[in-house]
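Sanity check record (used in CI):
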Amino acid sequence: MNFLLTLVLVLQIATALAMIGLILLQHGKGADMGAAFGSGASGSLFGASGSANFLSRSTAVLAAVFFACTLGLAYFSHSVRPSGSGSVFERVAPGAPAAPASSTAPNPANQIPSGASTVPAPQGPATTPATTAPGAPASGAAQIPTK
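Expected output for Protein-export membrane protein SecG:
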């Protein structure tokens, strides 16, 4: 099964590269006007009108092979299940349980690693004005700084 999947993938890549080459070799719609006045029609490999027919049919055949390879790859990728099939969320390792909410908040200064000594946590509730929650922000003219 793995060999067949690799073979279809290589065939699809080869067809894609061949299609790119054939499409780049084809003339655009505006090139027909120049060929009508004799610019380069005799110097082409397939003659005046043979290249459009040959290249377009070859491109159509390669497009059909590319489409068939795409369907084959879709079928093989759907039929081959990985060992741990299922949702991505089911394969995630469970994390640490959430810590219960306590009445005292942790001191952020104790969480910063330092090379010297540790800072002891303050005892008791914090009553300084810097740690209290601010009220509603001022609006309107109260936001304009004065001298």
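The helical segments are 2-25, 31-36, 50-79, 88-91. If this sentence no longer matches the regenerated tokens, the check is flagged for review.
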